[in-house]
UniProtKB/TrEMBL annotation:
Keyword set, alphabetical order: Amino-acid biosynthesis, Aminotransferase, Histidine biosynthesis, Pyridoxal phosphate, Transferase
Class of enzymatic activity (EC top level): transferase
Keyword Amino-acid biosynthesis among record annotations: yes
Gene3D superfamilies: Aspartate Aminotransferase, domain 1, Type I PLP-dependent aspartate aminotransferase-like (Major domain)
Organism: Leifsonella bigeumensis
Oligomeric form and interacting partners: Homodimer.
Keyword Amino-acid biosynthesis: yes
EC number: 2.6.1.9
Pfam families: Aminotran_1_2
Entry-linked HAMAP family: HisC_aminotrans_2
InterPro entries xrefs: Aminotrans_II_pyridoxalP_BS, Aminotransferase_I/II_large, HisP_aminotrans, PyrdxlP-dep_Trfase, PyrdxlP-dep_Trfase_major, PyrdxlP-dep_Trfase_small
Name this protein carries in UniProt: Histidinol-phosphate aminotransferase
Amino acid sequence: MAELDDLPLRDDLRGLSPYGAPQKHVRIPLNVNENSHGIPEPVARDVVTALAGAVLQANRYPDREFTALREGLADYLGHGLTRDNTWAANGSNEILQQVLQAFGGPGRSVLGFPPTYSMYPILARGTGTTWVAGKRDADYAITPETAVREIVATEPDLVFFCSPNNPTGTPLALDTIEAAYDAARGIVVVDEAYAEFAPPDTPSALTLLPGRERLIVSRTMSKAFAFAGVRLGYLAADPAVADALRLVRLPYHLSALTQAAAVAALGHADELLATVADIAAQRDRMLAELPRLGFPTRESWTNFVLFGGVADPAALFDALLERDILIRDVGIPNHLRVTAGTEVETSAFLAAMAELAAQ
Ligand SMILES: *Cc1c(COP(=O)(O)O)cnc(C)c1O
């Protein structure tokens, strides 16, 4: 068998590592911020019925415009958005890739603010877009002044904000997004993958869309909707953004099965989102308990917690893995990240942490 280096790989991909959150079979997987709750059976039955209907017509290509799905997404988002304001793809990762294909690419750059979602630089590389790492303020905040300063200094073609931010969990105020939009010449993306876990009535960047045709708000069904395995991400923006993405998407990129499953699930949004309050409560338990064990935390508006005070992250990661608990080392010195699971999973994690802290 040949080595990767034996192949005529693109020069800019040589030496890179792929996205690689460990996929291990453990009893308590708290590493990739999935929803630990399964799909309620009545919802699953409805999804299966919709899938069966789609399979019976699978000899035909699917609706290239995924019209019913976009209508469902607009209904779910509200804010006066219509089908034309929405677009979907196989996970919000594909959404972000399409955005970079259309608005980034060779000779262009995207500004992000590490520590942030690890896929942003990987997607930038894959599309030939230069990744520019902006600086945050203390405690992972980004004030409007800081955002504007970084944009003026680096003149990016795109700006990626993650709000609330992965892997820190911290919120981002809308005035930072407004100021960044005014300072930027290009596209501003707000990745709201975790928006449903924010405190109730927190205003979304969706409220900023009117009159801002360069603003894109991306969302996903992978987290709060408990639909990670289906791969459905989406965005809201000016309808012209969808016109741009039509230039780069593959024809029929959303399979008939994906469309059918997602439309059926959106019809049960209330039932699927019923777990959000419990997950937030488990997150809050960890926010309260971890500092008592000597692991300081910051505010989290997501379904996970980043905790510090870890002398040896690799050793703690391994000690938890021995107890069949998988969490995530996100590369921040002395920190680890853990997803809020079910009450039982969270209790097991906290009990293991108490035991390990006492050693
Ligand atoms: C999990 C996550 C996503 C979701 O990706 P999908 O491709 O929709 O599964 C997007 N952005 C961030 C910041 C995430 O943490």
